[in-house]
Design goal:
2 domains; 6-stranded antiparallel sheet; 3-stranded antiparallel sheet
Length: 216
């Protein structure tokens, strides 16, 4: 009888050890799976396209009225082309931002230009990874009554011009976006000057805002 009990105890102990080993191994497999997924995501992020709207610039003067022409310099800092690239911009006026003064950017609200915007294989363009030059995309603030009112207030320094925008594109088999916000920083004098050859040089510049920028 004692021999049977001893045998039972040995079998139970061996079963418990086997169960614990199985649990430990299972935990290691789950942990290893998570580490593999993290590594795969990191590798994908490092190799995909990344669209960065890095700068806006004036191409016509505020004083000349509408249409107001400007451009966006965009760089693809990733490793593969961004395809089906589309974009949307929304110019609007905000309370005047004084140079060197404080401004509550929360008053501008959320940048909504990405809402409903999707990469489009029919109308979208391809932005290749950039080694030296950036991609320059011309933009126009159209001749419309609401824009005319905005520009008049900007010219009189009663408002500041804000440009919200969004790029949507495909890379690594998925859709991604890059939203941005810039404001036009005025200085004393006209918005555009002429050099000795008569070439226009912007005196007012677009500065990146602290809010309204996002990427995925």
């Amino acid at each position: 009888m004692e021999k049977v009990r001893t045998t039972d105890i040995v079998i139970a102990a061996a079963t418990a050890v086997t169960a614990v080993a199985a649990i430990v191994q299972g935990c290691e497999l789950v942990s290893g799976s998570k580490d593999t997924a993290k590594l795969a995501n990191a590798t994908l992020s490092a190799s995909r396209a990344w669209i960065d709207p890095e700068q806006l610039g004036l191409d016509s003067s505020v004083e000349s009225g509408l249409p107001l022409r400007y451009h966006i310099r965009v760089v693809n800092s990733g490793k593969e082309p961004a395809t089906e690239v589309v974009w949307k911009v929304n110019p609007y006026g905000a309370p005047y931002i004084p140079e060197g003064g404080s401004f509550d950017e929360s008053a501008l609200g959320k940048n909504e230009t990405c809402a409903g915007l999707h990469a489009n294989p029919a109308t979208g363009i391809v932005l290749y990874p950039t080694a030296a030059p950036t991609h320059v995309i011309p933009m126009v603030m159209e001749n419309a009554p609401e824009n005319l009112s905005i520009l008049e207030k900007v010219r009189e320094r009663n408002q500041s011009l804000i440009i919200d925008g969004c790029f949507v594109y495909r890379t690594a088999g998925a859709e991604h976006f890059s939203s941005f916000r810039f404001f036009l920083r005025d200085v004393p004098g006209p918005s555009v000057l002429l050099d000795k050859d008569g070439k226009p040089i912007p005196a007012w510049s677009f500065n990146a805002a602290l809010s309204g920028n996002d990427v995925n």
